[in-house]
């Protein structure tokens, strides 16, 4: 059994993560689980301070510091359990039956690697707890999560709006052709209008590729709109999205074209910063 897995923390975007995860769980008819990872760098299991200058000879101080660390970690774990319980309650209110939860003490990336085989869709906020209040800042681990995951990733904004339309950035490459097939086969966007947008020139080859993709999605019951826009990838996509009031942007996480270059390295962070709607990255 594979799950919609939602990563939650104490950030202001956690409620939206819960709501998008609940929406996806019901659309996919897949069980939902919430994951909270207590960062071992911030909350180590134990700290050895005996090597610090002057502390080795003060055993009572070492014991007191160790006790404080233990209490701090215990409170952080309890806070995580409270957040998980609140997330489950919110999901149940959204219509999900029997959501589950997991808590790990360690590293987020390692935890996701261990759980990946059980994940159908990963839902994660654009901003984490450490980046709250920084509007143009994305979570420090988000790009790393996107790179290591071999499952679709839904990156959510700070507030929830039920998607009614989606835009697939299409470049005709193998990754986006596979993305078309994934969307056609998945119930996640069933009934939603899909805008198939290519950034490039209106050549015969591009027109043939667009028509093949349109036909695949139409056969799956989608109402499909197609467009070929010129210019730079990011501004062209954002402009089209704004013009048509599109709720959800869909892209291949890594392709073999301008869109691939666009999503690698610092430009990935730039895309995530400038996107105000959820971004579904297909792998």
Automatic annotation (TrEMBL):
Mention any Pfam family matching this sequence: Usp
Q: Which residues form the UspA domain?
A: 4-157, 210-283
Instruction: Say which family it is in.
Output: Belongs to the universal stress protein A family.
Name listed for the protein in its UniProt record: Universal stress protein
């Amino acid at each position: 059994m594979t799950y919609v897995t939602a990563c939650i923390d104490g950030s202001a975007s956690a409620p939206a993560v819960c709501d998008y995860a609940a929406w996806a769980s019901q659309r996919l008819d897949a069980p939902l689980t919430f994951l909270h990872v207590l960062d071992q760098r911030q909350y180590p299991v134990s700290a050895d301070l005996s090597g610090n200058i002057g502390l080795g000879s003060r055993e009572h101080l070492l014991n007191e510091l160790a006790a404080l660390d233990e209490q701090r970690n215990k409170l952080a774990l309890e806070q995580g359990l409270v957040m998980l319980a609140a997330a489950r309650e919110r999901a149940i209110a959204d219509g999900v039956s029997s959501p589950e939860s997991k808590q790990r003490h360690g590293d987020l990336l390692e935890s996701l690697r261990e759980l990946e085989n059980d994940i159908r869709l990963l839902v994660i906020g654009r901003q984490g707890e450490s980046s709250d209040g920084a509007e143009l800042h994305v979570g420090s681990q988000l790009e790393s999560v996107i790179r290591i995951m071999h499952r679709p990733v839904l990156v959510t904004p700070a507030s929830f709006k039920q998607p009614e339309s989606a835009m697939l950035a299409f470049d005709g490459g193998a990754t986006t052709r596979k993305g078309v097939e994934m969307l056609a086969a998945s119930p996640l966007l069933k009934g939603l209008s899909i805008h198939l947008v290519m950034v490039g020139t209106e050549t015969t080859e591009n027109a043939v590729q667009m028509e093949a993709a349109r036909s695949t999605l139409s056969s799956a019951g989608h109402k499909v709109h197609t467009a070929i826009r010129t210019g730079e990838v990011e501004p062209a996509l954002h402009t089209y999205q704004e013009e048509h009031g599109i709720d959800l942007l869909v892209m291949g996480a890594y392709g073999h074209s301008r869109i691939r270059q666009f999503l690698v390295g610092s430009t990935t962070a730039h895309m995530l910063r400038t996107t105000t709607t959820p971004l579904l990255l297909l792998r």
